[in-house]
């Protein structure tokens, strides 16, 4: 997509460096209590977890992070939003593999994720807080903002310049969201993202078949021509 002041690769690269050290920040007690007390809203049509406002936010985020251009379709056309929704509705979103017994003390980056919220709870609180910040700052929720304001907000968010009032740590949520966007872009299509294997085709990844050793020299410095294969193609 030409003449758009947004560089997907530059933004995603800078986002990793700026947010990787933020995963151990503690959660304000007020936000924790509010999140635990909130009743789960009804999912939006076509979604298993995300409600309409959350779905609109995620679709807008993935479409801005992954805009349609000569390399790939936009994020929602690749199914990144669907990948995130399914993950949140499943065992990962419920925190099935997380230790959730506390104590909830502020840790250090090397200790990893330290919040008393499951990923699904963090998303629910984080999206609401992000939209509240956007309304306060730009007078509109994220999905209603023009592209220039979306870019300004995302860059500020990724570099730790955004704080959520009475919400979860902003950079912790961004770190998780960014990671999930990347996973949805390059995961097996079976999980909802990387539709039509667009992410794999973009980087020349052959898919689940790991028998391409003979092609390393043959296609060195050349585009790999093979059609990627996913899990569903093997059944």
Put the structure in a nutshell.
The protein is an all-alpha fold. Helix content is 44%, strand content 0%.
Describe this structure in words.
This protein has 235 residues and is mostly helical. It has 2 domains: 8-203, no CATH class; 206-235, no CATH class. It is 44% helix and 0% strand. The protein is built from 9 helices and no strands. The radius of gyration is 19 Å and the shape is globular. The protein starts with 7 loop residues before the first helix and ends in a 17-residue tail after the last helix. The model is unreliable at 1-5 and 18-25 (pLDDT under 50).
Keywords:
2 domains, 44% helix, 235 residues, disordered N terminus, single chain
Class derived from helix and strand content: mainly alpha
- The backbone outline, from C-alpha atoms, is globular
Mean pLDDT figure: 84
The parts where pLDDT drops under 50 for at least 5 residues are 1-5, 18-25
According to DSSP, the number of beta strands is 0
Rg estimate, integer Å:
19 Å
User: Helical element count?
Assistant: 9
Proportion of residues in β-strands: under 5%
